[in-house]
Amino acid sequence: MVRRKYLIVPLLTLIFFDPCHSAENEGNLSASLDPFIELPGAYLIKPADLDTMFEQEEWNHNPYFKWLTKDKSRAVFQQKKQPNLSVSLTILGGTVPIEEAIIDFKDGQFEGVTISVYNRGDGTEITPGDFEARNRAVGRHLGQQLAVRPTRRTHNPTQGLLTDGWIWISARGKAVLEHNPGAPGKTEFLRMRLARRDAGGTYEAATKDRTGATVTLSDLPRNVRKTKGGNVFISGIPMVDQGSKGYCVVASAQRLFEYYGIACDMHQLAQIANSDPDQGTSPLVINEELGSIDHFFKTRLECLTIRHTSGLVELVDDKYVGDPVSEKDFHQMISKWIDEGIPLLWGLEVGRFDEEPPLQNQTSGGHMRMIIGYNHTTGRIIFSDSWGLGHEFKTMDANDAFKATLGLFLLKPIVR
User: Fold this and answer.
1) What would the pLDDT profile of 93-114 be if each residue is shown by its tens digit?
2) Which CATH architecture has domain 217-413?
């Protein structure tokens, strides 16, 4: 049982934040995320305020949100439809339901929010009329908050623009409201971002005229960290949580793209790659999904090695070719790209070998992770899962990692 904590917060905070949530009965909860999209109140929110705004009720874990990082720089709210817990999320006074919201903080200050107003992976199919109503309501709100007329965005794949929608930029902040080109006839996603005027990273990239990395290859080695114990790893890789969906490939790709400063999310990537949330993750499926994504975002995919009956080999034009890749070559591949600040996408058979920290649940089958480092002294590789907090930095014996590997993929920006 969790004891409820009563905190004293400034009156100004209460004016902007209260009330945020309600519970009709135990296990059936709802939360309004309006405080994150009301300006200037949103800019006053600190990481510590989230627990005050969204109390845990009597649950062992906060049912409304969870932190994705140890430094509390990113939190996620997700609607839930479980047998023992239902959580509904809304904005605009409860009139617009949403699927998910990512809240970002920088140096302890609110930086921005990304809201999945709708996505195919989490929501039931919506009608064109419902889409139009949500789109108009959110667009009207953003215009009122930023006090500026929007600029229209029209998809143009040849220029790297993959969405339709609107962009608002003023002294008060910046916002993007976008959807897949097929909507509302076939709606895949409807997404909004709202951030401080000086917010960088994907918030800045989302307002650009072209889709592509905002960092160059020459910038990336600066992210490599080395410890006295021999760890060599890449820092600053954003975390996401793929949830219960089989989106490990596109979730890993989203994290990699955010690291490169490319604005996207797993739901948009799933639509482009035609990902099936219930589909298994075989090496060829991974290669196919990543191969359908890379050129849209000014990145280049290379399959470094893939599992075949004879071991790990090269894959060229969907054909297994070349001599088997040795364990020594495998580890040299990892060292080479980690030293250049480029994480590797790692397909493997999860659950075969011990890892640290251990998996909490019995998990097996094809999966995608990110290799983010190595330690030649201890003979371990360093990796990260797209499962949220606690999965940022994990290790496995390097020999076991080689044996478990189904495929190793390089996805990097083409801008030097």
Assistant:
1) 999 999 999 999 999 999 999 9
2) Alpha-Beta Complex (3.90)
